[in-house]
Write a structure and sequence with these properties.
The complex is a heterotrimer of chains A (274), B (345) and C (273). Chain A is an alpha/beta fold and 274 residues long. Chain A contains ten helices and ten strands. Chain A is globular and about 55 Å long. Chain B has 345 residues and is α/β, with parallel strands linked by helices. In chain B, strands 6-7-8-3-9-10-12-11 form an eight-stranded mixed beta sheet, with helices on both faces. Chain B has a four-stranded antiparallel beta sheet with strand order 2-1-4-5, covered by helices on one side. Chain C has 273 residues and is mostly helical. Chain C is built from nine helices and no strands. Classes of the chains: A alpha/beta (274), B alpha/beta (345), C mainly alpha (273). Chains in contact: A-B, A-C, B-C. Chains A and C meet through helix 2, helix 3 and helix 6 of A and helix 6 and helix 7 of C.
Chain lengths: 274, 345, 273
């Protein structure tokens, strides 16, 4: 299966729905029980992403976007529908995950602090991932881990520091390096910059773009921040109450929103009328 | 032609002893220290700024800037967090607030200066109905449910544009949405008709559509009630919507003050400039975002000289030594960069 | 925002406790070896008040109280540490499994056992165990372990449940780590530190409980030197030879105090601002 990275066009050029997607989500439904009864968090979602493409999922709280992200990755089981990467279905987590599934899709979480094991230093954490995912012996895994960390901007000194001594931005970079150890085809990023300062978030976004260009990874970027989506995503899906209400190339969505909710969202960007 | 750079302690001319002070709030040379396990660390260093009557000041700062501690100093809750004002003066309508005993603060906090915390749940008691909590706010802490107070509660809910006020009054905070809760907290803060409302990141935890509503509300309230507003945020766009003036803080220091429009289109200080440029909406899709290399220094680890110099694209040797530069006045705007004069003659 | 490396300055309480306990333990190891007197067989004049030769006096059988008390604290500490150590290990392992297993049949069954034991009055259960095993060091240690492990399990269960839901555990599973690896490298290391702090605070109680059980006659029996038993025997002589019950009591109190200081100091040191 070929996976050439998308040619480096300006993000906002109109991109038709890709014909040869790397990941396909079809008619996904997720329900779970809460104290307040059953919640139908995801109600029939369809999604495709091509290699080298970034797809943004925007929605507010309660839209189900985080549940959707966790379901795509396999952390949450779907009651209906399928998630396929390179033609193979991605199974929800049960027991030990297969190497194939691990190499299909990985996730970057929102909270940089809880996404790293406080008992492990970055080098150990990434080396462990390399050891398991790439089946390398420990010594080589350590070397490879050092390279991965370097490529995301973590110095050898920083890779030996305790997690809590690192800043939010640095921790997110470590998480990215760890995810890359599995050499995933798809990266799902769930609000990775929401808890970061603006200037730090900016450099993280640059990093994600670079990684995508270099590796041809397909990225699903979940966020509530329309500004980030406009900058980063080739195509956008707008989510409300478990469903996609609109989707399309980024520029079209922003210049010519069709659905009322999309219009409301865009109009509420502070400074939209300035 | 800029004024001669002068020490910002002369931000306003010596007041005429008889007249009412023109500034509602005047902060002069205020430093705040925070108690840590074995020592004390400075988190705000020599802050100078003013808020005029009916003014709207926005405070922009990232983590470690000290903006939250500054807000707390203005409502006298520093002791709760182990902080204290080590020097300087905070004058509220001519009255000195530094060193004020807690008893005196009770007369000012809530009554003259209102405060809206970042998390609406932090400002509300989770088990009491909204109506009861607002009656507490209206009757200054002594719960007295007189008909006048009840009427005032409904008035307040109307003021913050909460529909179905009669129903909301009997609901508990959990039954309301985040945006509604924030409005309730604002209503409580307005109960005593304060002349200054301080809002600490009021919309950070809210969805963007809800945020728009709250910001609009703040703008309208300011106009209707003639009160002054001071709003802290890390989001420049939020501040631009509400505030006339904006103040940027970095590593405990105030580094720029100016009219929002002016600062936005032509920032004087390189940090403000870099912050503006790193905004996602300033970026060209397909191009890398402009970033500021490095990270803001933590309190206690501030470098010598200008705190920003390690990350500054235009730092020169003079920036790296001595004290953090004071704010200098440039035609009504202020910048703490020693190179501003040469860059913008 | 980068933070400076955190200085782990030793807490004064911790250091004091450690020093005190260190002195007591050192004395308890050295003195019985060096002293000419035997803790179990009396060779001196009985009922002698404290003097230069017999620092704590002698008891009714002519045994030197100083050596005997120190030998007793050595035994008590050994038993306490063993009891706590085993409870900690067993309880934490079981609790961790329960916490991770979430709402499964296994977890439910174990929870029933754990909660039942925790609900049982200590004395009743402890005496029951001693009745089965027999009053002896083994008996009293068994009693402590049987009554205590469930408390550690509860602490570990709560912590493990939190840790199991943490994102780094999700990340580990997404990366394809085996259940064993996740459990041993990601969950367990983040669970036991809290259990350890709990164990330190339990140590005081256990030392006193061992002495209490022996005091009641349900633990270590004379002539073995054990503080609780010594206090119990010495009660009869309180008016004529006060040093017989008092000194063992004082040694016990000192040991307990020093362990408490260690536990509190440790908690303060590991608590983050």
């Amino acid at each position: 299966m070929t996976s050439e990275p998308m040619p480096r066009t300006a993000v906002n050029d109109a991109v038709p729905t890709p014909a040869d997607p790397v990941i396909e989500v079809a008619d996904l439904h997720v329900r779970f029980a809460t104290d307040r009864g059953e919640v139908h968090a995801v109600r029939g979602v369809d999604l495709v992403v091509a290699p080298g493409e970034t797809v943004g999922i925007v929605g507010e709280s309660g839209s189900g976007k985080s549940t959707l992200a966790r379901c795509i990755v396999g952390l949450v089981p779907a009651q209906q529908g399928s998630v396929t990467v390179d033609g193979h279905p991605v199974r929800p987590l049960r027991g030990r995950r297969s190497r194939q599934d691990a190499a299909a899709v990985q996730m970057i979480f929102q909270d940089s602090y809880t996404s790293l094991n406080p008992r492990q230093r970055p080098l150990q954490a990434v080396a462990e991932a390399v050891q398991v995912c790439q089946q390398l012996p420990r010594k080589q895994a350590l070397v490879r881990a050092g390279e991965l960390l370097g490529s995301v901007g973590i110095s050898p000194a920083q890779s030996r520091m305790k997690t809590r001594s690192l800043s939010g931005g640095q921790r997110q970079r470590v998480s990215i390096a760890r995810a890359l150890a599995a050499e995933p085809r798809v990266l799902v990023a769930d609000e990775p910059t929401s808890s970061l300062d603006q200037s730090i978030a900016a450099s993280l976004l640059n990093l994600l773009r670079r990684i995508q260009r270099e590796r041809g990874i397909a990225m699903v970027f979940i966020t509530h921040d329309l500004g980030v989506v406009r900058y980063l995503a080739h195509r956008v899906y707008v989510m409300q109450q478990g469903r996609f209400v609109e989707d399309g190339p980024t520029r079209e969505i922003f210049d010519n929103p069709q659905h009322d909710y999309t219009r409301t969202l865009i109009a509420s960007i502070p400074g939209a009328d300035t | 032609m800029p004024d001669q750079p002068r020490d910002a302690t002369l931000l306003r001319d010596q007041p005429d002893p008889g007249a009412e002070p023109a500034e509602l709030l005047a902060v002069e040379g205020v430093s705040i220290a925070l108690r840590r396990r074995y020592d004390e660390v400075l988190v705000v260093d020599t802050a100078n700024f003013t808020v005029p009557r009916n003014g709207a000041l926005g405070v922009v700062g990232e983590s470690g800037s000290g903006k939250s501690m500054l807000s707390r100093a203005l409502i006298g809750t520093l002791p709760r967090y182990g902080g204290r004002v080590t020097r300087g003066s905070i004058r509220w309508q001519g009255r000195e607030l530094v060193g004020l005993p807690e008893k005196a603060w009770r007369g000012i906090r809530g009554t003259e200066i209102g405060y809206v915390p970042q998390s609406s749940m932090a400002g509300l008691n989770p088990i009491l109905p909204i109506g009861d909590q607002l009656i507490e706010a209206v009757s200054r802490g002594r719960y007295r449910a007189t008909p006048e107070h009840r009427a005032r509660v409904l008035e307040l809910l109307d003021l913050v544009r909460i529909p179905r006020a009669k129903q909301v009054v009997s609901e508990t905070p959990h039954q309301l949405s985040g945006g509604m809760r924030q409005r309730v907290v604002i209503a409580a803060a307005l109960a005593q008709r304060p002349q200054l409302l301080i809002l600490d990141e009021p919309t950070t935890a809210l969805d963007v559509t809800v945020q728009a509503g709250i910001l609009k509300l703040i703008v309208e309230l300011r106009e209707e009630l003639g009160m002054a507003v001071m709003l802290t945020s890390h989001d420049l766009a939020v501040i631009e919507t509400v505030c006339d003036e904006v103040m940027t803080m970095y590593a405990g220091s105030v580094i720029e003050i100016g009219a929002t429009r002016a600062v936005r289109s032509a920032p004087l200080h390189p940090y403000t400039e870099a912050l503006m440029n790193s905004r996602v909406d300033r970026a060209e899709p397909g191009e890398d975002l402009v970033t500021i290399p490095g990270e803001p220094p933590a309190a206690g680890a501030w470098p010598a000289g200008c705190r920003f110099w390690p990350r500054c694209p235009i730092a020169i040797d003079a920036c790296k030594e001595g004290e953090q530069p004071a704010l200098r006045s440039f035609d009504g705007r202020f910048s703490a960069c020693i190179r501003t004069e040469e860059r913008y003659p | 925002m980068t933070s400076e490396p955190r200085l782990r300055r030793a807490d004064p309480m911790f250091v004091t406790g450690l020093t005190l306990l260190g002195l007591v333990v050192a004395a308890s190891l050295v003195v019985p070896l060096v002293s000419p007197f035997d803790p179990v067989r009396g060779t001196a004049e009985p009922l002698q008040p404290p003097s230069g030769t017999h620092l704590f006096g002698t008891d009714n059988l002519g045994r030197d109280m100083f050596v005997r008390s120190l030998a007793a604290i050595r035994l008590d500490m050994t038993l306490a540490v063993t009891a706590v150590g085993v409870s900690l290990l067993v309880g934490t392992l079981i609790g961790a499994v329960m916490g991770v297993a979430g709402r499964s049949k296994l977890s439910g069954a174990l929870s029933l056992v754990v909660d039942s034991i925790n609900a049982f009055p200590f004395i009743v259960l402890a005496l029951g165990v001693v009745a089965v095993v027999g009053p002896s060091p083994a008996g009293v240690v068994s009693a402590i372990i049987v009554t205590g492990w469930a408390r550690y399990a509860r602490v570990a269960r709560a912590r493990a449940a939190v840790v199991a839901g943490a994102e780094y555990v999700s990340a580990a599973r997404l990366l394809g780590y085996s259940r064993w690896r996740v459990m041993t490298r990601h969950i367990f290391p983040n669970v036991y530190s809290e259990s350890f702090a709990f164990a330190l605070s339990e140590l005081v109680i256990v030392v006193l409980a061992i002495a209490a059980l022996s005091f009641l006659g349900a633990g270590v029996r004379p002539p073995t030197a054990e503080l609780g038993a010594m206090i119990s025997e010495g009660r009869l002589f309180l008016s004529q030879a006060w040093w017989i019950p008092i000194f063992p009591g004082a040694v016990l109190a000192l040991a307990a105090l020093s362990i408490q200081l260690i536990a509190d100091g440790y908690e303060r040191m590991t608590r983050y601002a």
